[in-house]
## 1
Amino acid sequence: MFSWGGPVVTDTVSDVGSLAFAGLAFTCALTVAKKAQGRLRLAWSLFAFGLFGWLIGDAAWLVYRLVLRTEPAGFSFIDVAYLMFPIATGVAWSVNAPRERRPLALRPLLDGLIVASALFLVLWPLILHRLFEQNAGNEAQLALALAYPIADLVMVTMALVVTAAVRAPYRGSMVTVTFGLIIVAITDCALVYVQSIGERTNPLLAIGWAAGMLLVAAGALRELHTPRLAGVTAAVTRRRQLFWLPYAPLVFAIPVSVTALWEFTPGDRPLLVAGVLLISAALIRQLTILLENRALLDVVAEQALTDPLTGVANRLLFSDRLDHAMLLRQRDDRKVSVLSLDLDDFKMVNDSLGHSYGDALLRHIADRLTSVVPAGDTVARLGGDEFAVLIEDGPVSAAELAQRIVEAFDKPFYLEGDDLFIHPSVGLATAPPIDDEEITADELFKRADLAMYTAKRAGIGGVQTFTADMRLVDRAELRTAASNGGKRRRTTVSGIQLLGQLRRAIDDAELSLVYQPKISLSSGGIVGVEALIRWPHPELGVLTPNQFLPLVRQNGLMGAVTDLVLDRAVADATTWFQPGTCEMPVAINLFAPSLDDLALPDRILAAVSDAGLPPTALSVEITEHLLVANIRRASTVIDRLRANGLRVAIDDYGSGYATMSYLRDLRIDELKLDRQFIAPVLRSQRAAAIVQSVIDLAHTLGIVCVAEGVEDEATADRLRDYGCDVAQGHYFSRPITADALRDRCQVGMSNSAIFPITD
Ligand code: C2E
Ligand code: CA
Ligand code: CA
């Protein structure tokens, strides 16, 4: 700085110093290149290569000045070596430049144009116009003179563009390196300026280069100590960019170019070109930002209305569509129905197979729902395993669509190479005609929910349609059901491991039957038996139906179980059934979906006749709420069975809803009054009144009335007084094995006063 010791010392210190700092920068960059991966590694290798060129240039310069004591004249290989630095660096950072998707793909290029033309605007009045004037007419000379400033311009531009796009933790090193590059470029320009005013060089410039190289080295070292996230090979992302950085040169470009344009001469034309370029690039860049913003807004709007997991509507969109549908109903009296769906035992899937499996299942379910539901209607996921469907006026009635949706779950879901059965509880509510009743969207939705909870409580699948009496259902119980995530623990023993054992038990016919006698209240004799299934489990003991039937139902094993029960019951019946002496029919319980199977009557009749038994040896019991789903088909099956001589009973009468219509629509032989009415018959006058009336009603319709769950003598007496025909319960006999039953039967033939039986 102070030229102590004369020009030789100054030259030596500056040349050796430059070389040393360039060497340091090169070594640091090379170390980073060795450690980095992917695109980053390529970028740093190219950068190190450029620094190597600079190093060669410095070394050659030193040899010329200090050893050969001359200076290379004109454009020499030293210039080539030096120019390698900005060129390789420009390429290096363009390798590392951010890759954007459309409409942003152009953005780095536009940023480059903005930065480059802004820098050009700054450089023009400072040095470039001088070079143009001095080399006017001599293009080759001009090109040489421009080589350094232009190469530096490209280098700084690329560095700024990349730095702007680098994510925060990795930005420090890039900022430092870019600072170094800018100082090197400024020093280069200063050299051009010095030369343009006629001097060869200036020793002060060495300080600029040294400082630049030192910063490059520091930046490289910082890069080396930045912790790399796993998998981050290119530290460039779109997020949290220094979005203003490409505009930074404008801060200098505007005042400088305004000053220059003030005294515009024809020689300043390149300035105009650069200005136009700058403005166009900035405008186009703004345009890409507008496009991007609009695309982002679309995405945000879409995300606000759809469920991210399944892509179907979310709660917000659903209630919006429902409100709209209710408005249409007001105006045009259009039909509106809401279907509320809640998966049974989804929690079990989640708990035993994992959440990602559960998520995949939910996606499959959403797909299946959308494939069944017509395009005009709305499928929505309301959260968890809750779905809803909005059914508007269309060619398909809501009840039919609901039925189709339930049937869509009869096929298993294929996930990770396995078949999985899952069923929903479904509630349906339809808005009444506007003249009949005013109803809000909210209320309609609540009704569908209420119907769904009723279906869930019944635990038998199928669709429950909202009926007014559901509003009388114990709200407190619903609330606890809801707070349990809508699930009621129906299975005490459940789990995936049990399912495998169950399949094996069914395959090996390990499930067994016990029989509970039905007693004639007038004669005290056995008039029939009911077959009840049991699973003698090796570890858990004998399991009752409530403990494993849900598992059977949910896994599509009902058909197999029904066949097994049918075969076993018929086989057992052959051991006691003797026409004329012991005509005790056996009743089997049927699952709901079995009734949808129109081939079922033939199978049952074949099983009976194959065993050589008359059809009267068998009867079937159908739980009342099972009938809800498809009354017409159930009615067909029932008629077929009865036409062939089988007896059909409605089971658990009074435990479900809308039961009167069954008595009207279905032709049946027997009505089994649910336990919940029989138990309080002595205590509650109201229960007694109901029992009495139902017995009378049954008799009016020519139907035999059976009382279930009779546990004591007084109840039996009371029922006899009411005229009840048949009773069943622990007071008479618990369910017993086929062998025990045969013994009793033989005794009973000789002695009619065999009851009560205790075991
Ligand atoms: P359900 O058809 O109502 O069968 C009567 C249930 O009441 C039986 O329970 C029986 O053991 C029980 N019970 C009989 N007398 C009394 C009594 O005095 N007091 C009390 N508290 N309970 C009594 P179980 O065997 O546990 O069967 C439960 C349900 O499982 C049955 O109800 C039936 O719906 C179903 N189920 C049983 N076996 C089969 C079958 O083979 N196939 C089908 N699909 N369902 C079956
Ligand atoms: Ca039954
Ligand atoms: Ca029953």
## 2
Amino acid sequence: MEKNGIGASPGIAIAKAFVFVKQEAEIPTDTVEDAVAEIAVLDKALDESKDQLIKIKDKAVEALGEEDAAIFEAHALVLEDPEFAGAIREEIKANKTNAALATKNVTDMYYATFDAMEDPYFRGRAADIRDVGTRVLNNLLGIENVDISSLDEDTIIIAEDLAPSDTAQMDKKHVKGFATDVGSRTSHTAIMARSLEIPAVLGLGDITEVVKTGQQVIVDGTTGEVIVEPDQKTLEKYEADQKAYLEYKRVLAELKDKPAVTKDGHEVELVANIGSPNDVEAVLQNGGTGVGLYRTEFLYMNSEVMPDEESQFEAYKKVLEAFHGDPVIIRTLDIGGDKKLPYLELEEEMNPFLGLRAVRLCFKEKNLFKTQLRAILRASVYGNAKIMFPMISGVPEVLQAKEILKECMEELDKEGVKYDKEIAVGIMVEIPAAAVIADKIVPHVDFFSIGTNDLCQYTLVVDRMNQVISYLYDPYSPAILRLIKNVIQASHSEVGKFTGMCGEFAGDPYATLILMGLGLDEFSMSASSIPQVKNIVRSVTYEQAQKIANRALEFDTGAEILDYAKKEIEKLGIKVV
Ligand code: PEP
Ligand code: MG
């Protein structure tokens, strides 16, 4: 059986499926005679749960670093809370309730209490309590806990969706691919899959219903195909494709230390998008010469409390030092929209994507903003840091953000703290208004970075996460290309200024020649996309790219432009996967 979804992370995976759905336990209702013996049963299950969590945490630290593993520490804390375990014991003692039912009752009660709390931090803890309660319950009932942190064989994870906590505990050695019911190219799961270089197909609708654990599955993250129980001929074809893909990747890997320069000497920057210091290694391995987008919000989202200046300073310093003077563009907090912080209470909004997000929120929460700016400034002496403000719609916001930055600089001056006084300051161009008036903004900034993920969403008025209208989400749209051209031209009107792109479009191999031909200076993408884009850059002359870009701008639709771009790549004999 074959299914089609969104190819979100390239490559081919062939392995046994593991359907990752959390099983509902059937809970006995009978009472017990010997409460003391039942409490001993409970204590054994609690110990077992604790041991499992320690093991999972250690594995997660190894696979993904301390930051992503923190969630398991939160789970262990619930188990160690004497009130939680005490309440279960009390229920067994007082009502002779069996241990499983007592665990369920207490978990439900705690869950409801936390879930009803005003404070979003405590509300966020409700999910941890449920996870832990389920683990203890499963241990009591002999149900295997769904654990993707320790797999015995190569596996393709089939899930409805994967939460950050799921991907955090994933056993990278054995997880060869994922296929999910929901998700899009720009969803968290997609970004995670690309950074882990795991082939992934998302948005398949009902893949969790059609696949059973143990069935053989092929995931082609390049084409978006998933094949369940392939016949011998299909299997052989994909095995051959997989071999060719890996061979191609090996050839591309040889370009690692070569510059991204065209045959006639036009050089572009190929840099990476990162979410934490843990991602740096992959950038260096893929030959990235810096960071075009450091999404700092993960630092905030992975933390239980607001990260202080010191912890932010350490994270930024670590990244800057790793790049030894290569540029690192640190984007200030882009929270709001779909990204929430458990410890920052915000009013419900009718249209969060059009609401109080990114710099708008930072202007309102000025202390939070200043803490981050001070941390970036302090770290700036350890490398080549640049500051980038997200969601800028016009000149007043640029001026306001720069004014606050100036305040931070003055404070540091007074304190005698060193920072890079010449630090470059740029903005993300992801609101159409900013793209249209780029010529008015350019005198106030050192660079632009085009965020096509949001620019597309706002220009075409298409929610980037909504599958039903995803056919309208098209970065090849002539409207988007014109905006891109406008931004690049505006930046080039002043000496020393440049335009980069850090939306997913920057890593799309069919877009490379058009974007380079339009004059894009810097391409920032998932680290794993760098080698392929570099290969394309090195296969042509700048003049060829310019001709292709000019021709592309003449078409009426995005579909025609993509079709044309594909044909040109083919004509040039460039392989793309
Ligand atoms: C973008 O909008 O293109 C972008 C890079 O930012 P994010 O995906 O984090 O919104
Ligand atoms: Mg954005």
